[in-house]
Design a protein that fits this description.
Number of helices: 16
Helix content: 25-40%
Distance between the termini: 69 Å
Oligomer: single chain
Strand content: 25-35%
Low-confidence stretches: 581-585
CATH superfamily of the largest domain: NAD(P)-binding Rossmann-like Domain
CATH class of the largest domain: Alpha Beta
């Protein structure tokens, strides 16, 4: 602690020594905070104006973030949060000594100069939402307005209506937007609430911007009322919905992709406040509002609203949290520009299957079908994305729950059928799932399933992925359109290529592994010794290969990976032409 205080004092002295050249005035003494940080205030001259700053030094100074705040009276700008903390350029290359505080103040001065000159966010740069002063962090809206769908709101500027919201594990999602006269604007989102989920009714209103001037979102009722004159009417309707203890109003506005660019999407931010039901219950209990006793039994809703409704002054707007979970937003940093498939049917939700499903889901696949008849055992946990609280439950169903929590916008359909089909019900389930899929992927590791898939009359491409007993060799095949190009025939093709020594660095002994994997009671777990680290990295390699292979033509495709030096290497990848029967490479 003593060393920390000495570092803070040294930085303080360094700042005072440079105060004249920095045009810094009125530097306060260091004030220790309860959390170990030190604070100071100062006034800095920027373009002839004196602007006060509040600075917090981290415990680890000269390492860690130096937080700098500007009072709201000086305006709100891009790269600034609702509390006034500014975000100057990263200082990764700044000194790690007392002078770092001087450099932080210099960066703040440059940031303020650009902010007040209007050059902080330049045309063409990525657009940034204004910071909302959140008052309800316990309530979250999950919405998925895709960029391609924003045009449906083009004629709704200044309009309002009703919205139905469904409860999810981490928030509430809009299921239906209607106009004032009951016309449906948007049906339920891609976020599907759990069976039996609670639903509430709220209101929506669509405005041109979240702020009248400057940058920060409206923080008081009077500011918001200037943006939407009929605000009181909307608030009262939401308040009277009587759906529980909270009334909800979603405030939407078009947003741009870049500064100065055209609108490319819609953002929704919720306002959450006490409902009529809550006010009536409080009134019946003899509570007081605004210092006055309220007798709810004798008061009409309109009379009660006058007492407990939002006031017209500078009271803060109770903005709640909001999260855009659309694929445009969630997967912008990871999704390939052109996916080869959108709705795969994955057979087998075991080690490789679960890792492959997780990889696809986090890559932005919008829908997936999972087929597996088995339940999760404790012995599966060493090689599976699921946890111990799923033991004894259906692998397909629990993997569905896992994926939909990890990737809120995905649709996953679990199917508990047996393959090859044992009953007509199994056959029907597989046929219906195939109709909804655009690619079948076998990750069951079962030779009989692979052989059965190989004799089907296929309308869809079929892929299969597998590994050997110690997960040192990984294989993927993708069926082609010609004779001899079924997944089972391609499996034989790969095996023969390995036996002939045509796959570099992969011998028949290595491919077959030190043990034979025999599915069945008492056999699978002891013989399959591949580690989770190898399985999950193999799934990543196979998903990358499959994403590219599924784009290409009528040929069959094969790949063999070899684990070496701590990672997977592609030993060989080749095509089998569709114009003739498969022959050796």
């Amino acid at each position: 602690m003593g060393a920390m205080l000495e570092a803070h004092r040294a930085a303080h002295f360094e700042l005072i020594a440079h105060a004249t050249s920095l045009e810094v005035r009125d530097v306060s003494a260091l004030e220790p905070q309860d959390d170990g940080r030190s604070s100071l205030t100062l006034a800095i001259c920027v373009d002839g104006e004196t602007i006060p700053l509040h600075i917090l030094l981290p415990v680890a100074f000269p390492f860690g973030e130096i937080e700098i705040f500007v009072e709201a009276e000086w305006g709100r700008f891009a790269h600034e949060d609702a509390a006034g903390k500014i975000c100057p350029w990263p200082d990764a290359l700044s000194s790690r000594g007392p002078r770092r505080l001087v450099e932080a103040v210099e960066a703040a001065a440059e940031w303020l100069h650009e902010a007040r000159a209007g050059t902080l966010a330049l045309p063409g740069e990525r657009y940034e939402l204004p910071a909302f002063p959140l008052r309800r962090r316990d309530w979250c809206l999950l919405f998925d307005e895709e960029a391609a769908e924003h045009a449906r709101w083009a004629g709704q500027l200044g309009a309002s209506g009703r919205v139905i919201l469904g409860k999810h594990a981490r928030g509430w999602a809009p299921e239906e937007f209607r106009t004032q006269d009951g016309q449906v604007i948007a049906h339920r989102s891609s976020l599907r609430p759990p069976v039996g989920s609670t639903r509430i009714t709220g209101r929506w209103m669509f405005i041109g911007a979240y702020v009248e001037a400057g940058y920060g979102a409206a923080s008081t009722w009077v500011e918001l009322r200037t943006l939407f004159p009929s605000l009181d009417e909307i608030l009262k309707k939401a308040w009277q919905e009587d759906d529980g203890d909270s009334a909800v109003v979603l405030v939407g506005t078009p947003i741009n992709g870049t500064w100065g660019g055209p609108p490319r999407g819609v953002h929704w931010q919720p306002i959450v406040f006490g409902s009529y039901a809550a006010a009536r219950a409080a009134a019946k209990a003899g509570c007081r509002r605004n210092g006055k006793p309220v007798k709810g039994r004798q008061m009409t809703p309109s009379a009660l609203w006058k007492v407990v409704g939002p006031l017209a002054g500078k009271e803060p707007v109770p903005w709640a949290r909001s999260e855009d979970v659309s694929r445009d937003r969630l997967y912008v940093r990871t999704t390939p520009s052109h996916r080869a498939f959108e709705s795969p049917l994955l057979i087998g939700c075991g080690a490789i299957g679960s890792a492959l499903a997780d990889t696809f889901a986090r890559g932005g696949i919008p829908r997936m079908l999972l087929l597996d008849k088995d339940t999760l055992d404790y012995g599966n946990l060493c090689r599976h994305v699921l946890r111990g609280d799923s033991v004894g439950e259906s692998k397909a169903r629990m993997l569905r729950d896992h994926l939909e929590l990890a990737c809120p916008s995905i649709h996953v359909d679990p199917i508990g059928a047996v393959l090859p089909p044992r009953t007509t019900s199994d056959a029907t389930s597989f046929a219906e799932a195939s109709k909804a899929a655009d690619l079948i992927i076998d990750a069951s590791g079962d030779d009989e399933v692979l052989e059965w898939l190989g004799i089907l009359e296929r309308e869809l491409p079929v892929a299969s992925v597998w590994t050997n007993s110690d997960a040192s060799i990984g294989v993927g095949v993708l069926s082609g359109a010609g004779d001899g190009l079924s997944v089972n025939q391609l499996r034989v093709h790969v095996r023969d290529a390995i036996d002939r020594g045509a796959v570099a660095g992969v011998s028949s002994e290595a491919y077959r592994g030190p043990d034979l994997i025999v599915p069945g009671t008492g056999c699978w777990h002891p013989t399959f010794r591949g580690s989770w680290a190898r399985i999950v990295s193999l799934a990543a390699a196979l998903s990358e290969w499959l994403t590219g292979a599924a784009r290409g033509g009528r040929d069959g495709r094969c790949v063999v990976f070899r684990f070496r030096d701590g990672t997977w290497h592609r030993a060989r990848s080749w095509s089998v032409p569709a114009t003739r029967k498969a022959v050796g490479p």
